[in-house]
């Protein structure tokens, strides 16, 4: 048999095997899924679990300035006022009045040891220096260490497990999300410290949020968006891009975790959608039971539900699509 004929025979055999295996997989989806799960390596992490929304929230906020973007004389009071006028009402609405927040802005403005561009320069990626290091956590660590002995950190350990659950850093520059092309600024974000900070009081600080104070009231949506991350929420838009405005925006204006953090120019962000409320543990979900009458004797009426706004104690309706849903 010539080489070309042999190759064609092998190709046909492989095609037949692939077709057979593909058809078998379609006919046996549960078996295939079980096999995939068995082959998946278990995911382990030493990170502290994020704590969802609490009935009593307490947030520690610290203001940091830079040698080339110094503080204003009223920055601490402005930060306190800005958050007091937005966060309590927002949490009250999304929780149906079941959650309240106390915000403590530390009275001392911390001065960063390096200029803004050191932490925000996009040399080797977003906020990443020439050494390949993501720099903003260094700034957050510096802030925490500077105020460490002046804070009762236990107030912000909301479930008494030894870990600080809410810590926000507000810097005195404009966030890069306001203008993606200005590449020396810091993108607002939530992240974990590579090495958690063991505080002198014994608590552990493992993560933080960072946003811009100078953006003012139009930055409220972004501050709350990042804090939702600290409660376990996920981004619901295309995150793998440095562009502020994209054609595809996920669930868009309907959720603070998508482009809804910019509603009202950033001043009146959207309430989270049902999936996000579930993730942050807001306990605002009611599963719809889609059971129709089992006999012809019963009237042919489907289930009925009453829609009530969340802010008035209503629930998000969850419609199950599969019996295997968690």
Keywords:
single chain; 326 residues; alpha/beta; Collagenase (Catalytic Domain); 6-stranded mixed sheet; two-stranded parallel sheet; 8 helices; 8 strands; globular
Radius of gyration of CA atoms, rounded to a whole number: 25 Å
Class per helix and strand makeup:
alpha/beta
Could you name the ranges where pLDDT drops below 50 across 5 or more consecutive residues? 31-44
Mean pLDDT across residues: 83
Report the sheet-strand fraction.
Answer: 5-15%
Which CATH class of the domain at 56-279 applies here?
A: Alpha Beta
Give, in order, the helices and strands.
Answer: HHEHHEEHHEEEHHEE
Instruction: Please count the beta strands (DSSP E, at least 2 residues each).
Output: 8
Tell me what the structure shows.
- Strands 1, 2, 3, 4, 5 and 6 form a 6-stranded mixed sheet that branches. A two-stranded parallel ribbon has the order 7-8.
- 27% of the residues lie in helices and 15% in strands.
- It has a domain at 56-279: Collagenase (Catalytic Domain) (3-Layer(aba) Sandwich).
- The chain has 326 residues and is α/β, with parallel strands linked by helices.
- Residues 31-44 have low confidence and may be disordered.
- The longest helix is centred in the N-terminal third of the chain and has 25 residues, at 3-27.
